[in-house]
């Protein structure tokens, strides 16, 4: 395969396939931060979103293209169904990027064509020919995906891919949309296309695997072995249902077993841990401790025999080092006596960019508070602190003070003081089943916006009794009709025009993240962050629509 023999391109779809999963919604500012971090990670392509889904999605893709799509930066891709309006919207949204790609798709499996699109195979080929050709008339870099390729008739899939190649597609992405295939089958499908589709050797073949059977990464790697030179994946493997192939696992498999795969990626692996943490904190989905590469236990050696081996010679039980993925934070670097200069130097070394001196000052104050409570402050603590503090959630309500009493024979009681949107102080108290419950009830009495707590998780950032706790909460807004989510729209609609539409009316779930050495206080910060996100969401929708319309977004 021509110019890409040894290089596998990493196409990150965290902001599209990842973000479209229910409850993984991010704000515009969060998407921008993730996109900036993906650029630092050095991914080849960022799929920034699905512009036709809503004016808000269009605006997010447009902003990412403007901010992150520099000439030496990643290609910015926008997703489009195979119809003119979607393709035009994707094209207008990615305009500001120096390197742009339109990614268009059309199902090729009989089950989708018959029951969802109500099209014949012949009509399907015609749509592909016309719409890939139309996209190519706008943009030189065109990706086409035959959706549900994994369950398509192999002969028809070859035909469909050949039509797309002839119409001008430059990347052919082969999705196992429902995560049905085994690695052997997926590899064989890629090899079949690679060997039998005229002209495909001048194009890039890409993998796109879902994890319904837990083999998305294995399938992607089998695709690489069979000739694919682009892998579509997401940070922490987030995505529809069981998710997509996880970027960190694919990249580290290729990094660690480069000789076996005979390829490389251009990913800056040292940015992996930070990217994982950023995405996890924004969407409120903690990384499981046993998750490969980025889980808290991924590099922890617990058993005596393993510890003994590692102390004698690291490679006895380690196939890659924690440092390679940016997890080298065990060293004591900062403490009580460290000043501004030391913190600035450390933040710089960790690749943390702050927007203003005011932001630095805020981080410095929190850092000093942390040093008063914790003797050993390492890189992991600092990254957690920065992630917690710089969530860019508008502080509609600011937690000013929290106090609680609890014990084995007392009723948990909490008092909170919040500063409201107009600067007024609100104080309230409540009792609860536990201290967190009491705090949340007191906060609810002030904020007065009903929500349901649907997830609460605590994690210790580092070892030790004085470890910093990170709390992640997810809340669901109450009192609004629950609307169709993206997955339902995808499977229930009956024409190309309606597939995937309505995803922006997904059930509204908001996450919040808080860090503190006191777990209960971390929980209070996390809850306020989630509530602020919920309160800001409505305003943001209106603002994003205004930005989109002002920048050229149109409706039919
Ligand atoms: O899984 C899938 O088929 C997709 C396509 C839109 C590429 O996400
Ligand atoms: Zn997908």
UniProtKB/TrEMBL annotation:
It comes from the Bacteria. Pathway: Amino-acid biosynthesis; L-leucine biosynthesis; L-leucine from 3-methyl-2-oxobutanoate: step 1/4. The keyword Amino-acid biosynthesis applies. Mn(2+) binds at residues 17, 208, 210, 244. GO terms for molecular function: 2-isopropylmalate synthase activity; acetyl-CoA C-acetyltransferase activity; manganese ion binding. Its EC number is 2.3.3.13. Keywords: Amino-acid biosynthesis, Branched-chain amino acid biosynthesis, Cytoplasm, Leucine biosynthesis, Manganese, Metal-binding, Transferase. Residues 479-498 are annotated as: Disordered. GO terms for cellular component: cytoplasm. Residues 398-556 are annotated as: Regulatory domain. SMART domains: LeuA_dimer. Its cofactor is Mn(2+). Residues 487-498 have a biased composition (Low complexity). The keyword Thylakoid does not apply. It catalyses: 3-methyl-2-oxobutanoate + acetyl-CoA + H2O = (2S)-2-isopropylmalate + CoA + H(+). Residues 8-273 form the Pyruvate carboxyltransferase domain. NCBIfam families: leuA_bact (TIGR00973), PRK00915.1-3 (NF002086). Belongs to the alpha-IPM synthase/homocitrate synthase family. LeuA type 1 subfamily. Homodimer. Catalyzes the condensation of the acetyl group of acetyl-CoA with 3-methyl-2-oxobutanoate (2-ketoisovalerate) to form 3-carboxy-3-hydroxy-4-methylpentanoate (2-isopropylmalate). This is 2-isopropylmalate synthase. It comes from Candidatus Viridilinea mediisalina. The lineage of its organism: Bacteria, Bacillati, Chloroflexota, Chloroflexia, Chloroflexales.
């Amino acid at each position: 395969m021509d110019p890409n023999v040894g290089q596998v391109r990493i196409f990150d779809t965290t902001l599209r396939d990842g973000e479209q999963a229910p409850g993984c919604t991010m704000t515009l500012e969060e998407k921008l931060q993730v996109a900036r971090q993906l650029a630092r990670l050095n991914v080849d392509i960022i799929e920034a979103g699905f512009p036709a889904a809503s004016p808000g999605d269009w605006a997010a893709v447009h902003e990412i293209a403007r901010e992150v799509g520099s000439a030496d930066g990643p290609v910015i891709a926008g997703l489009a169904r195979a119809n003119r309006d979607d393709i035009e919207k994707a094209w207008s949204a990615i305009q500001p990027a120096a390197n742009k790609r339109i990614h268009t798709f059309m199902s090729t499996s009989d089950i989708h064509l018959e029951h969802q699109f109500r099209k014949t195979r012949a009509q399907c080929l015609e749509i592909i020919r016309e719409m890939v050709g139309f996209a190519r008339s706008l943009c030189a870099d065109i990706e086409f995906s035959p959706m549900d390729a994994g369950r398509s008739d192999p002969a028809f899939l070859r035909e469909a891919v050949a039509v797309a190649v002839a119409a001008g597609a430059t990347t052919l992405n082969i999705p196992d949309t429902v995560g049905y295939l085994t690695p052997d089958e997926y590899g064989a499908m890629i090899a079949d296309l690679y060997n039998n589709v005229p002209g495909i050797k001048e194009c890039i073949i890409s993998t796109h695997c879902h994890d319904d059977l837990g083999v998305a990464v294995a399938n992607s790697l089998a695709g690489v072995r069979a000739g694919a030179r682009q892998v579509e994946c997401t940070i922490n493997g987030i995505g529809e249902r069981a998710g997509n192939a996880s970027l960190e696992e694919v990249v580290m498999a290729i990094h660690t077993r480069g000789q076996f795969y005979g390829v490389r990626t251009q990913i800056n692996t040292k940015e992996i841990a930070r990217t994982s943490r950023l995405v996890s904190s924004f969407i409120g989905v903690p990384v499981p401790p046993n998750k490969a590469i980025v889980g808290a236990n991924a590099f922890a050696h617990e058993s005596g025999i393993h510890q003994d081996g590692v102390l004698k010679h690291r490679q006895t039980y380690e196939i890659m080092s924690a440092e390679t993925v940016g997890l080298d934070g065990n060293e004591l670097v900062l403490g009580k006596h460290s000043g501004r200069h030391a913190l600035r130097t450390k933040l710089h070394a960790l690749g943390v960019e702050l927007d203003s001196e005011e932001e630095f000052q805020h981080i410095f104050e929190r850092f000093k508070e942390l040093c008063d409570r914790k003797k050993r402050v390492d890189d992991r603590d600092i990254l957690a602190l920065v992630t917690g503090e710089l969530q860019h959630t508008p502080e509609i309500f600011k937690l000013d003070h929290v106090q609680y009493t609890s014990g084995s024979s007392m009723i948990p009681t909490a008092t909170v003081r919040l500063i409201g949107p107009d600067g007024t102080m609100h104080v309230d108290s409540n009792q609860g089943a536990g201290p967190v419950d009491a705090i949340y009830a007191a906060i609810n009495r002030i904020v007065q916006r009903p929500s349901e707590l649907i997830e609460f998780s605590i994690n210790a950032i580092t070892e030790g009794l004085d470890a910093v706790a990170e709390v992640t909460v997810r809340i669901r807004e109450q009192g609004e009709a629950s609307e169709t989510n993206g997955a339902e729209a995808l499977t229930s609609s009956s024409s190309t025009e309606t597939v995937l539409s309505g995803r922006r009316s997904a059930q509204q779930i908001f996450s919040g993240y808080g860090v503190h050495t006191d777990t209960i206080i971390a929980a209070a910060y996390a809850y306020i962050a989630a509530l602020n996100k919920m309160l800001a969401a409505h305003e943001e929708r209106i603002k994003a629509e205004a930005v989109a319309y002002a920048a050229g977004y149109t409706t039919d």
